[in-house]
Each structure stands twice: as C-alpha cells, then as structure tokens.
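USER: Please consider what follows.
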Amino acid sequence: MGFSGAYEKLPFTKPLPIKVDNQQLNHSFLVSKNSQSNLLGRDLLVKLGASILCSCEGIIVTFPTGNIVNCSLTSGGGGQWLLSEAREPEGADIYWGELNSETPGGQGLLMLYSLWKPWVLSVAPYMPPIDPPHVTLFYDRNQCEWYQESFETELEGRTWDVKCTGIWVGKEGVVGAVDLTNDQQQWYRMGGEAKPHVTLAVHPEHQAKDLGPMTKRLAQTTDWIDTQIPGFQYSNSQQAYKINTPTGDTATLQHRWITRWHGREKTDHESARQLLDDLPDTLWSAGPTDVGFCSSMSDVTFDFTDYTPIWRSQYPNKSAAEAGITDTIEGLIAAGVLEPSESAWNTPILPVEKQNTGKFRMAHDLRLINSIVHTPTLAVPNPYTALTNIPETSDSCLAATRSVLSHLHEAGFKVSKSKLQICRPKVTFLGRVVSTQGAGISSQHRSTILHHPKPRSVQDMLSFLGLAGFSRHFVPAFAERTALLRDMVKQKGSRQLKANLDWTADTEKTFIDLKSSLALASDLATPNYEKAFYLDVSESNNTVNGVLFQKDTSGRVILLYLSIMLDQTEKRHPACTRYAAGLVKILQKTAHIVMGHPLTVLTSHTVMAYVNSLAFTMSPLRQDRLLKVLTWPNLTFTHRGINMADCMMEGEPHECEVTAISESKVRPDLRTEPMTGEVVNLYTDGCCFRTEAGELVAG
C-alpha cells in the first residue's frame, strides 16, 4: 500500500543509470500513472546513503558528501510537515479476465464485433467502454480477504480460455455473452443480478453497471424470432438483437482497484436509498398534477400600470395537443390548482409536448400581462453562488440534500422522486451532462438533433435552428455555418410559416454537416480561475467567431465557442472596423465566464490604436461604446500565437488605420489632398481608359 491508499501491483522498469550528488548507480523504478508526482522511494534513498529530516524549514535531505538539499524550497516554501491520518478514497476491488489481443485474421469476439460494428452503430449512438474488453468475475466493495488471497494464489496472471455464444444488442448497450465452464463459474461472484459478459459498447443514457442485468434479462427472454439472416434473431419485447456466432478468446486474469464511481457514473450514492426511505411518503409526487399545498404561503399580488382588461383569443391548436392538455387541466382542477371562473381577461394557452412522450405541459402566454405589471421584480438567488457552495464531500452533500427535502416537505411542496440525482459524479440537467471536468450535450439532445428530419417549411426550419442554437456554444462558427439555412427563411419571409423551402445541394450539405458537428461535439471545460483566459477572434463573411480557452499541460482547454452576426450598419464598414465591433460583442458575451480575470486577446489588428484614431469609420457614439469595453483593465492584446477562431491567421499584423483608409477609397488613385502648383481648369465627361502602362487616363 502506498500513495493510492490501496493494495495494488505495479511494474518495475529495467535498471536505469542515474546520477545524484556525484554518485552513479543503476536503479529500477516503480511505475504508476496514478501518482500525482515523481516520488523518491526508500530503496533508492538507502542506496544513496541519504538521510531525511522533517523540520520547521521543511524536508531536509543530507547526502554522504555533506551536501544538503531543502526539498521544500521548490514546493511552496517552508513549513512544518506533519503526519496525518490516511484517507482512503471510496473504491472497490475488481477481479476480471482481460481479453488478449487477437492475431490478424483471428476468429475472436473483437474481430466479430468489428465486422458488425457499422450496423450496430446504426441502431443507436453506442459509445465504447472506458475499460479494455474483459469478463468481470467479482466486484468487491467489502474487502473480501479470502477471495483476494485465493485469487492471488491460484489465478492472478494466468490465462483462461473464454467462450462466447455471440453478440447481444440491447437498449443499455452491446455485450458478448460469455459461457463459463463449471470450474470458471466457481469464481464468478456477481450474484443473481447479472450474467457473465464482455462489454463492447454502452448506450449514452446508461452505464457499464447496467449491462450485467441486461445480459441476464436477454438470456431469460423467450420471444426470440429468426430473421432472414442466418444466426440473427430479434426480440420484440426487449427490442434487442442476437448475433449467434460462437467465438473463442483467451483472457489474462487480473486484480485491480477502481474508484467507487467507475462504471457507475449514473448511480446515486450508496446511502441515497436509505436517505430517501427515511423521508415521509407524502413528500413524493404521485403524478404531474399532484403538486402539494403550501398553506403557510401568503398571496402574491401585482400592481398594473393599466387596468383595462386584456383579451387575447386562444390560438388554434392541433387536435393531439388539445387532447394531451385535457388530462392536465382536469387533473389540476381536481387538485384544486385551477378553478373555473368568468372574467373579462383572457390570455391563450400553448400546449408544449414533453420530449416526444405524447404528454403536454400547459404553457401560458402572459406577455401582454407582463408588459403592464408595475410591481418590482422579485430578487432570486444567484445560481453561481449556489453552485460554488456545493459540498465537497459526499457526507456533506447527503446531509444538505436531506435538509432541503425536509424543508420542502414542511412547506407543503412535493418532489418528483424519479428526477432526483444524488451525489453523482455526473448529472443531467436541461439537456446538459455536467461533471467536474465540464459540461457536454446530453445524449438525448444529440440524438434529437441527429435524427431531426429535413425541414420542409419555414416553421420547420425555425424549429430546427432553435433546437441547434441551444447548443451553439459547442461548435465553432455557428452563425457562419447556419447562414445559408437562415437565407432560405429570408427568401420566403419569417412570417410565412407554411411556405415551402427551396433546397439546393449546398443547403443540404450545410444541414447535414451542422447536425453531424453537433452530434459529435466535444464537452466544454470548466473554467479554472487560478489560470489566465485567452480569446481568439476572427471576422469573415460578416460574422465574428471566437474561442475562449485556457492553457494547461495538455494544451488548450476549450471553454466556449462564440459566433455572432454583425448588424447592417457594421457590415458596411471596412474589415478592421467590423473586427473591432465584433470583438467587443464577443468580449461582452464572455464576460460572465471571465468575470474580470486576466484575458489575453490574440489578434492581428491594432485594435486600440485604430478605434482611438481619426481613421475610425464609425460614429462617435459607437466609438465611445467600443472604447468602454476595449479599455477593461483585465484585457491584454497580443499578436503572437495561433488563432483557433479561423485556423489560419487573418494576415500579418498590420496598422488598421492605414488599411481602413485604403479600403475606404472608391479608387486607389484618388487623393483628398489638393494638387500643388499652377491652378488649371480641367474638364472631363467622366470617361477614362487604361494605357499600356496600366495607368488610368481621363479624357
């Protein structure tokens, strides 16, 4: 047991030559990717004859030659080093047989899966597992000593022959069904909840932990029917497939230690069930109309600027929406939330479908009412403050969760138990998957975008652009990439919702590329406010694109992609002016993330000098607005680096003032300075011709 706090076996390097304090010797080092820094082992210190002293000045190492090294001077200054109680991370011992690599032309499970993989990925957007292909024998969270001792003595490092009956494709993922021998079955300790299998792929909505129960469920399914393909079966009840092709592999038996969340990222904390069982049953909502009753809450009243009754007729809705909202209205009336009444006021109801479930929520169009409300807006807590105060430990998080749920129950509220996500390393919220590393697009949202049909009308296109725009920050140059699609809407008119769109090869390619980019978009990282921020900005085709990122040891970490359209006034100006106007908009859109921390802007423009010069082509009012942003104290402009916003730089660093004057001329040979010398009256009819020397001559 060492730095990890758990028992594990690690490899040694071959003897390597080292030189320390004029001493030369060979030493084999212990290798582990889990160590946060290079550690000097006791065995090497003994070879060197070094002594260690822990003092108020830090760790002092003394060599036989008399040289003294203070190891604390390079690790944050002096201080007294004290022993503390070791805190072992929550984890488990896992015993598995890892499949060995196949030879070219082999007949193993991995080769079979590679043949079927294109078809498998057409069924659902399955993702590869985080672990190498293996057969799990025992997932031990209670340190079963007898199993560990027996495994290390009899099995570890040995090779098993593993037989698979075929590949099974289900909702949770894709597995190779393993048929263990009687001797092998004695080591299988996964209980009655799973069956032996090799995980080949996992559905984004599920986790590796779900594939064991899926394998057992499919093994017990009896409605498998043969298809036209030999050895290929389908189950209608499970919506699953079987590829009945036996394979043979070899597996090396291994013992590893993993974290508690490994393969269980979408599972609540082990203490969550007990927490929920301790809470009153009346806290949980029985359905969408079981909303509870807050008897202690006072009435909410509003003051209007105009008390003239507002009457807006109901929108025409589809019959499916009308039928879907009827159950909701009847349920709310039965619960006492809605009461029938007669009034001179009326605003329309807009039924909104819940994620293609056939159920509708009741949205109320209160825009006209909001326009005459005079009561000041109620203050609400800042979400950032709430998120930054999230407890760091699971125990604190569980205690805070219990406190919040108990308070809601005392106030009369009800909670949907199925929507709770307690102490998970990843949570899904509003179409996003949020973790400590950052945020990504949820698999449901990706699937909705990827399978969105080709828009036929203006209304369909506006719906798709709204769906895609919700995740615009995950792909670069969004405004530029959707320009052709928006032009299709402009041609018909944005109010002509039923008008059919005119598709071309270019617009179809744009539509397909945009869907693919969003479906495959990478996650965005969480900002680290101990590091500086960087911003790359480019302007092209009247759109401004930006990339906000930070730097770490692995390279650039993307925080946000931005893309905006310039307004009609800005589009008429020279390129340097358009760039300055777009840069200000990008800076304003990143301010909520940067929050005044140091920000370096990579640019080939002399932005500050140009906006302050007489050559700046915008009005004094716009000029003043730009300067207010460009003079923020946290900004630094530089010309060095690679601009990620346009992949290739817009050009060599230049003086925007000179470039703008040149671009503003109608003709390059026109001058605003008066001619010197004798005054001559010249007459011309406006025509000109180019001489053999290339000069323009008027006549």
